[in-house]
Amino acid sequence: MLQRALIVDDEPDIRELLEITLARMQLETRSARNLAEACEWLARERFDLCLTDMRLPDGSGLDLVQRIQQQYPHLPVAMITAYGSLDLAINALKAGAFDFLTKPVDLARLRELVGSALRLHASPSSAPQMPRLLGEAPPMQALRGQIAKLARSQAPVYISGESGTGKELVARLIHAQGPRAAAAFVPVNCGAIPSELMESEFFGHRKGSFTGALEDKPGLFRAADGGTLFLDEVADLPLPMQVKLLRAIQEKAVRSIGGQQEVAVDVRLLCATHKDLAGEVAAGRFRQDLYYRLNVIELRVPPLRERREDIALLAEHCLQRLAAASTSAPARLTPEALARLQGYRFPGNVRELENMLERAHTLCEGARIEAADLRLEEPGVACAGAPLATPDNLEEYLERIERQAILQSLEETRWNRTAAAQRLGLSFRSMRYRLKKLGID
Ligand SMILES: Nc1ncnc2c1ncn2[C@@H]1O[C@H](COP(=O)(O)OP(=O)(O)OP(=O)(O)O)[C@@H](O)[C@H]1O
Ligand SMILES: [Mg+2]
After folding, report:
1. How far is the CA of 350 from the centre of ligand 1 (A)?
2. What is the CA radius of gyration of the chain?
3. Ligand 1 atom nearest residue 140's Cα
C-alpha cells in the first residue's frame, strides 16, 4: 500500500514542489490550503506523514501540530518555517513536531526528512539487545513514555540528572527507539578530551594538517552522520569549543582541520550533564546561545532516593545479572539488608547500587547478603569522633545522621519500632513520622 502524506501550505508553488518531490519518492499526497482543509483531510483519511507551513490563512501551523499530537499521536508532522525564524522552529519542536524545514526548501533536506519520518513507521520500537530502563515508580513510567515520544522527534534533548541515574541509558534508548536506530550512536565524554585535541576529535583532520596528524580522521560528527551524537558531560566543554560546536549545529556542516570545504552532516544531538547547566550559563561558563540550542527539550532523570520503591526491583535484576555472569545462583538480600538499602541516600544512584551489590555478591556467604555485607557507612556517625568536613547541604547532612541513628536502633531492637523509639527518646508517633519521611519501611 502506498504511504500517504498531507501537505499544508497556502502557497501553490510550495505545494507543487512538495507534491512533485514526494511523488518521486513513491508517496501519495493530499494537499490543503489552510487549517480547516487540513483537518478535513485528517478526519477522512489515514496519513503517514504531514508537512505543514507555519503561517496559514486561518491559523498557525503550531495549532495543527498540537491537534495532531492530541488526536493522531502516531502521525509524524514536520514544520516548514521562513528562513531565520529559528525560534518558531524550536517552538514547533517543543509542541511535538518531529523536525522542521526552512524556506527556501532544500530538496535534499526534504528527502532526508521524509525518509526518516517513514522509517519511524517501519521500525517498531523494540531493540532486543538494549538494556531496559527499569522502574515502576510514577516518575519512571512517565520517563519511559517521554522517551518513546522523543525517539520519534529530531529535537535536541538535554538529559539532566545526578550522576549514576541512567542518563546515558536514556540517551541510548532515545536513539534505539527512533528512525536513526540503524545508524551510529556516538557517545562522547566532553570532559575527557584534552582541549588541544578537541577540534580534531569533533570535526576531524586531514593527514599532515598538524604534527601528529598521520592519517585522515573523519571526526565524531561525521561518524554520527545519519545517527545520534551524544554529548555527555556537555558542561565541561571549554568556551572556545562551544563556539565551534554552535556553528556546526547551525550550519549542519563541519570543516575538518586542514580540510578545504565544509561537509554536510545530519546528526541528532542529545546531551547530558550531572551539573546544573542553567547555573553554568548564569555563571558565564556555558554559552547561552548553545544552551538554548541544545536544551530544546529537557528530560530529567530522577535520583534513586526519589523513587525508593524501585530499589528492590533494581537490586533483584542486578543480582540476577551478576549470577548469570558467574553461573551461580542469584544471591538474596535479607530483609534487613533490603531495608538498609531502602533507607540509604544513594548519592551515586543506580551505579552506586550496582557497585555495592557486585561487591556484596563477591563477599557474601551462601548466596545471602546481610546488611553488613553492604558496607554501608553513613558518614557522621561512623566517624563520630573524627573532625567533620563542612557539609555542603545541612538538611541532607542532618537527615543522613537521623537515618543512621534510626536504622541503628532498629537493628539493635530487631526492628521493634516501639523499642527503637524508646531508645532514641522518641514517641511512637514521632518515630512513625520519621520513618515515613525518610522512606524507611
Ligand atoms: N532505570 C534503570 N534500570 C536499569 N539500569 C539502570 C537504570 N538506571 C541506570 N541503570 C544502570 O546504572 C548504570 C549507570 O547508568 P548511566 O551510565 O546511564 O548513568 P549516568 O547518569 O550517565 O551517570 P554519570 O552521570 O555518572 O555518567 C548503568 O550500568 C545503567 O545500565
Ligand atoms: Mg553518563
Report:
1. 6
2. 27
3. 1
> What is the β-pairing status of strands 332-333 and 77-81?
unpaired
Q: Which CATH architecture has domain 3-122?
A: 3-Layer(aba) Sandwich (3.40)
Cell of 280: 553554568
Using a 10 angstrom Cβ sphere, with 0-12 exposed, 13-18 middle and 19 or more buried, the burial of residue 269 is buried
Confidence class for position 385, pLDDT limits 50, 70, 90: very low
For residue 68, the CA-to-ligand 2 centroid distance in Å is 34
> Which ligand 1 atom is the nearest neighbour of the CA of 159?
21
Q: 3-class DSSP state for residue 297?
A: strand
How far is 21 from 250, CA to CA, in rounded Å? Answer: 25
Regarding beta strands 228-232 and 368-369, do their DSSP bridges make them parallel or antiparallel, or are they unpaired? Answer: unpaired
- pLDDT above 90: residue 289: yes
CATH class of 304-376: mainly alpha
Find how far residue 240's CA is from the centre of its chain: 25
Please, what is the Cα angle at 244 between 238 and 246, to 5 degrees? Answer: 100
Cβ(65)–Cβ(52) below 8 Å: yes
Residue reference for cell 495532531: 68
Residue 132 Rama label (left phi>0; alpha psi -120 to 50; beta): beta
